[in-house]
């Protein structure tokens, strides 16, 4: 790590994650004059980039495709000189310093190690799996976690969507562009999704519902042929729904495994951040879908990220001894 200490490879802030939160943090940090590096995952994509239509990000009255929105974010960050590197981060640890040296961190990726005074975690979350027989075996053979990616394969076919949240309902609506029938399997008798989405789905002629039902197995020979469900209230209604595709949208798992021994997380692995987006580790900030919070949206990710970058800036200025309050009068 000794070689990392030269000024070339030493950053004020390293941002981990290339989704809306990471890019917004990068925009604020680089525009704020910090020497900033954003590491975007090699083996992961931001969820928003596979979202067909974002209808609730202000400023786009017609809605905007998620991929296009992120490209716009990138264009804007580049105007302020943010360096973006593709690397999967494995470890974040304290950098050993000479006595009296600034407190800093090493972000260790697969391709390099990056020394930094502050870290912003913006690693987002990934789709949770059901963990039922057939799910893994038929992954890519009818089991999907991305309607935008795989929906067009199901033209005039029948598909099952599992889940009752915003993602399940929004993606079910998207799938009606292709599939002749979409059955939403939900474990309760009402949807969790926001009312505007519920209304569209409940009145859609090609969407059916299997209420109070859980998936027991995904069945087929080479490809998915059916989804076996169990009705939790009335076993007589348990059945196999004939389907060519099974789209699973049962929530998220935060991408925080690599950092759980460094910052405090809640019982589900979401990072605990205060209102200034500080984590339990001094110099590490967090924002977006990877933190414990009420509402996971692009707009809230961006808001958190602006705060995280500002807090990181104050932290860096404090360490360098050039903070406004530390300058005296
Ligand atoms: P979510 O809100 O956590 O919903 C997950 C759904 O899956 C719930 O209906 C849950 O059932 C069900 N579920 C969980 N585990 C299950 C299991 N093992 N078997 C069967 N069903 C299971 O997740 P999400 O829909 O992915 O949304 C994540 C976040 O992104 C939310 O904050 C959401 O508002 C946001 N989002 C917003 C939009 C939008 O605004 N347009 C679009 C997409 C996502 P229960 O209801 O019984 O818990």
TrEMBL record:
GO terms for molecular function: thioredoxin-disulfide reductase (NADPH) activity. Residues 11-303 form the FAD/NAD(P)-binding domain. It comes from the Bacteria. GO terms for biological process: removal of superoxide radicals. The keyword Transcription does not apply. Keywords: Disulfide bond, FAD, Flavoprotein, NADP, Oxidoreductase, Redox-active center. Its cofactor is FAD. Belongs to the class-II pyridine nucleotide-disulfide oxidoreductase family. This is Thioredoxin reductase. It comes from Syntrophus gentianae. The lineage of its organism: Bacteria, Pseudomonadati, Thermodesulfobacteriota, Syntrophia, Syntrophales.
